Each structure stands twice: as C-alpha cells, then as structure tokens.
Amino acid sequence: MLTKRIIPCLDVKDNRVVKGVNFLNLRDAGDPVELGARYSDTGADELVFLDITATIRSRKTIVDMVERVAKNVFIPFTVGGGVQSVEQIDELLRSGAEKVSVNTAAVQNPNLIAEAARRFGNQCVVLAIDARRSKARPGHWQVCVKAGSEPTDLDVVEWAAHGEELGAGEILLTSMDADGTLAGYDNELNKAVSDAVNIPVIASGGAGNLDHLYDAITLGGADAVLMASITHFGDFTITQMKEHLRDRGLPMNL
Amino acid sequence: MIVVIDYNIGNVRSVCNAFRHIGCDIQLSRAPDTVERALGLVLPGVAAFGYAIEALGSAAELVRQAAAAGKPVLGICVGYQMLFEESSEYGPHQGLGLVKGKVVALPAGQVVPHMGWNRVDLPGDMDLFSDLGESKHFYFAHSYYAQPGDERAKVAYTDYGFALPAAIQKDNIYGVQFHPEKSGRQGLKVLQNFYDLCRRRA
Questions:
Q1: What is the chain A residue with the closest CA to B140?
Q2: Chain B residues whose beta carbon lies within 8 Å of the beta carbon of residue A74
Q3: Which among B122, B125, B123, B153 has a CA at the least distance from the CA of B138?
Q4: Which of A81, A138, B79, B136 could form a disulfide with A51 if both were Cys (CB 3.0 to 4.6 A apart)?
Q5: ipTM of this model?
Q6: pTM greater than the 0.90 cutoff
Q7: With an 8 Å Cβ cutoff, are B188 and A2 in contact?
C-alpha cells in the first residue's frame, strides 16, 4: 500500500525561500538548496520548488538551482513557476527534477499538458491550480492565474477533471483563501476535487497544526499534504507530522 | 571505483549524484577498459524496456562479461528489469538474461503506474539490506514488474494488492525495482551497502 506523503513546499524568489500569507507579505526562510537538503535528510517524502519570481531572467537561475538541488536532495522533487513550454519542461527534467508543475500556461494553452504527458509520461506532469472561493457562486471555486493575481472564468473542479483527461499525473491544489493563514486546509475544496479525479491530489494552503494534515487526508481525500510555514519556521518537524498521522492510523513512510 | 553504465538515458545523473554523496568514487562510462577496472557496475534505467535495451546496445555485452567474471552488478528500475530474460512492454523484447524470469504489466485493479513510497519487507540474507531492519519504505515509479523464476535468486517483496517483487539477489547480480537514489536515507544506505560489498570483494 502506498503511503500518504508529506511534501514541504519551497517558494523561491531571487534565490531565497520565502513564505507569505494569502500570497503576500513574504518572509525569508533560507537558502533553497540547504533547506531542501535538510528536508531530504530528515524524512520528507517529496519536495516542491516553486519559482515565484518567474521572469525570463530567472529561468537560467532556476535551472542552476535545480542542478544544485539534485546534487543534495535524494527524494523526488517537483519544480514549477512560470513554466511555459515543453522545452522548458524538458530542461527542468534533464536538470534533475522528477516532475514539473504547470499553472498559468496550461490555462492559456491546455494542450501543453497533453504534449508534455505524451513526451515525458503523465507521472512527470503536475497540474497546479490556485483556487479562490467564488463570491458569485457559493460552493464553487475560481481558477486564478499569474501567481493568483488574475481570476479566470474556469471552475476549479471542472478544470481539474479536464487536466486529468489531458494527461496530468497529479493535481497540486492550493487554496488562496487558506494559504499562509495556519487555519487549516480548505477541505470542501479538496473533497470536491479529489471526488472528481482519479489521480492523486496534493492539498496545499492553510496547514497550521498536525490535525489539519490529518483532516486534509481523511475529510479532504488528499493523497499528500503540502506545507510551508509550519515546517520552514520550525513549528513541527517532518517526523512529528508523520508520527502523528501514523498514530492516527494512516500509512506513512517512517 | 564503481562504473555507472552510460547509455544516454534518464536518471543516470541522479544515480551518480547519490553515489558521490556517499563518498563513492563513481564514473559514468561504457568504455571497455574503464568497465574492466571497475569494482562493480550499476545499470540504471527509466523509459520503456525496448527503448532502454536498444540504447544499451553493445554495452550489454560488457555487462554480461562483467557478470560472468563475478563482478557485482546492480540494476535499478528498468536497469533491474533488463537483468531478466524478456519483457512484454510494447511487444516482446529480450533482456540480458542474467536472472531467469520475465517482465510483465502490473495487473488490472491497481493504479498504474505504481508510484510513491511503499514498504518493502527486507530478508535478513540480502546483502543490499544490511543494517536496514525488517522493513523500510522505498520510492517506486513503474508500470511493469519482473516475475523472477530463478530458484537461485533471493527476492524481497512489497505489497501492492499482491506480493510485488521489489528486489533480487542472485550470486553477484543485484537488482531493485525502486529508486534507491530517490529513497532518502534508506535509499542511500542501499547504495552504500552495494559499494561496501564491491570493496569487500575486491
């Protein structure tokens, strides 16, 4: 039986790991390679690196970073942020990433998912979705793009299901409403999406304590939980998270 | 020195990175004189079986010769699958035939690919698992699996709705279906154990 996964997320801006609240007010959390290596050594199941600078100039920087990460991190890792093309995905995979996440570019050109899945395999393609609760339609979520700054007309649940059809191997689902608040994941959102797809859903945004992780898996139906604030700033170790989930009956890699 | 067989295929770099991290002298090569000097060989692999065996090309003979000479050989993922006689992935393909058995698709009813961390029960008499206890989790990513049919091979299993062979050992031939280079501390320990047994033999 596969275990549930604990995935620290490293948002990288100008070569530093940062973490904000609702995508704003960023705090410095250290060097991405050092922090990644520490998580790899202390039992994280996977890592996600998101380049939140994502400018043309930052492309080369992120490839260099991925190469350095690959020399020091011995668990699978995903890289994303501003990925536009199959060529960029190829470059990141060659540099040592296991998976690449696409977000804005996939909304603009859904065929990017299909092309990447055909060329590299579904397992390499993660569809990242930034979701915001819709004010106009209660019980629905809007897909937001460009680091969450731009709402679209897409419905999150429909987009996730379409992403699976196109060939995404996994959904990285971030609640913008919950992100950085430490108040818990949006498990209505997680449940709605995990019910609509057969591929793994990674719940992201809002982890503040150990019970939140458990709830995202049991109530939200997530296969993996992603977190940043509670682990970068030392509130909980990876082992503490895993022991808690194991003690509550979930299969964990411990 | 350990040689990772260079045949222009994915994950080669990750495997080299992991060996370097544990302080192993590692070379990526398919030059006969370098392979000759190696204490042990590593055959990594991702991609489809047929593609990988074709890319391996003439280096297949080097691996067979080293194996026949008693040199330790470690196959990883598709590199492990290539140790067997044949695979049915996209039509029949011949493997290296160092271990009896064949490679077939994962059975229906399970999510394919088998991807993520799964627990492997570790037999006490398999060299790669020295000092790792009775079971550990390792990272898997594959859609086909090997069915060993060799009475001389020791086999370790994981549970994926059935007893899925996860590792083999037959004399000087070793293989793991999972990715030790991506399995954290316990994965690095498997590589360390391989390096140690190569040095002990030398």
A1: A2
A2: 17-18, 21, 181-185, 187-188
A3: B122
A4: A81
A5: 0.92
A6: yes
A7: no
